[in-house]
TrEMBL record:
Pfam families: NBD_C (PF17042), SBD_N (PF07005). It comes from Seohaeicola saemankumensis. GO terms for molecular function: kinase activity. This is 3-oxo-tetronate kinase. It comes from the Bacteria. The gene is otnK. Catalyzes the ATP-dependent phosphorylation of 3-oxo-tetronate to 3-oxo-tetronate 4-phosphate.
Length: 417
């Protein structure tokens, strides 16, 4: 294994797997820290954690455990993957995890780059944009767990870190690798270990990837991984072979706990011509609905059924005020985990889930160990194979076109491209 990656959620880790696979690496995504060595052919290993919204100390501990395992597999470079919308609270986990990994690796210069231009996320002068809006006007300010109310990534990260945060501005990145490295050195001399790097286009990300060829630790969204496989290839370290992907027939089902703008649009679109069932926070909290009853409903439907708790910001805020933010999230995620188990037990072989925390709960609930990364459905969302009978798509909240759900189900079956 060459590149060792630690993802703070499961959708995001499959997004990273997609980027690395497309760039020619042989990738495996692991569910949590494996207790056995990796297969010899794996070139990039991604340890997917559900550490985005847990307590800081737990996130740091799990990330360091993942690092130890990846080091034991022979990795020479490490990537900490978080969300391209920098999902974290002011007290949150990105800064402490990045600093703990940097300490463990003795890393002096650490890039921080959530940009992912293919999905509209760019960084300019340290400020994160989603398409033509600053992050705090993009809808992310209403996220149920990590509302992003400040677009200045240096400032937000600064709340989370012990050290100060520098900037590698677009003016340096656009002039190429030499200027980028020179600016990184200046930031280092100024005492900034973590440096937010501007990136507006894929070309900027490739430049940053090349500039980071010798850095032990890189952090960011999946975009920052774009340039890394080329560094290993240039050293003659990559095999040219890729896994062969096979579609999966059988029953499909969709579970959505994401409340993002994109997911809510996808839910509305799917509901126009498919069996769809809404579950409210009240039904979950009161125990009025059971996972088995929902599974029985889904398994009795023709077509591709969708079960969702996705709701508008005002509905979410109301539920959180009445039940508590963590309590309602935990109960809903628990329902999805139980539901996923009941669906697979009932014969579902293609499962699509929407939402990072939701997907984490489902994957952990299913007790899966590792994924092979397949072809891309939409930017940032690949199909993944968990076993010879189960194919998944873990959709990040804000990713995917309006008809994502039905298109994903068809592509996973192998009947559409
Ligand atoms: N109706 C609802 N009311 C309150 N919280 C909800 C509701 N539906 C889902 N949630 C919670 O909101 C969170 C959504 O996060 P996540 O699944 O990561 O989606 P995204 O990818 O859009 O961030 C989850 O913890 C989920 O359990
Ligand atoms: O970078 C991204 O946006 C994704 O890879 C990701 O991490 C998404 O997380 P969720 O929106 O919570 O699914």
């Amino acid at each position: 294994m060459l590149l060792g990656c630690i993802g703070d959620d499961f959708t995001g880790s499959s997004d990273l797997g997609n980027t690395l696979t497309k760039a020619g690496m042989r990738v495996t995504q692991y569910v949590g820290v494996p207790d056995a060595p990796a297969a010899a052919e794996v070139e990039a290993g991604i340890v997917a954690l559900k550490s985005r919204s847990i307590a800081v100390a737990d996130a740091v501990r799990l990330s360091l455990e993942a690092l130890d395992w990846l080091r034991a597999q022979g990795c020479t470079q490490f990537l900490f993957k978080y969300c391209s919308t920098f999902d974290s609270t002011r007290e949150g986990n990105i800064g402490p995890v990045a600093e703990a990994l940097a300490d463990a690796l003795d890393a002096r210069q650490v890039l921080v780059c959530p940009a992912f231009p293919a999905t509209g996320r760019s960084i300019y002068q340290g400020h994160l944009f989603v398409a033509d809006r600053l992050l705090n006007e993009s809808g992310m300010q209403d996220h149920p767990l990590t509302p992003m109310t400040d677009p200045d990534i240096r400032r937000w990260l600064g709340y989370q870190t012990k050290g100060t945060v520098g900037l590698v501005p677009a003016q340096a990145v656009m002039q190429g690798v030499t200027h980028t490295r020179a600016r990184m050195l200046e930031e280092d001399k100024a005492g900034h270990r973590l440096m937010v790097a501007d990136a507006i286009t894929d070309a900027d990300l490739i430049t940053l990837g090349q500039a980071a060829a010798d850095l032990p630790l890189i952090t960011g969204g999946s975009g920052i991984a774009m340039g890394l496989p080329g560094n290993f290839r240039a050293r003659g370290l990559l095999s040219a072979t890729q896994n062969q992907w096979m579609g999966q027939d059988g029953k499909a089902a969709i579970l959505s706990g994401s409340c993002s703008n994109a997911t809510r649009g996808q839910v509305a679109e799917h509901a126009r011509s498919n069996p769809t069932r809404e579950v409210t926070a009240d039904q979950v909290m009161s125990g009025a609905i059971t996972a088995q009853a929902l599974a029985d409903w889904a398994l009795a439907q023709d077509g591709v059924p969708l079960i969702y708790t996705s709701a508008d910001p005002a509905v979410v805020i109301d539920a959180q005020a009445r039940f508590g933010k963590a309590a309602v999230a935990t109960r809903i995620e628990g329902l999805f985990a139980d539901l996923a188990r009941a669906l697979v037990a009932g014969g579902v072989t293609r499962m699509i889930s929407a939402g990072g925390e939701t997907s984490g709960a489902i994957v952990e609930g299913l007790g899966l160990a590792a994924f092979e990364i397949g072809p891309e459905i939409d930017p940032g969302v690949p199909m993944i194979r968990a076993s010879d009978k189960l194919v998944l798509a873990l959709k990040s909240g804000n990713f995917g076109g309006p008809d994502f759900f039905s298109r994903a189900a068809a592509m996973m079956e192998g009947t559409a491209r």
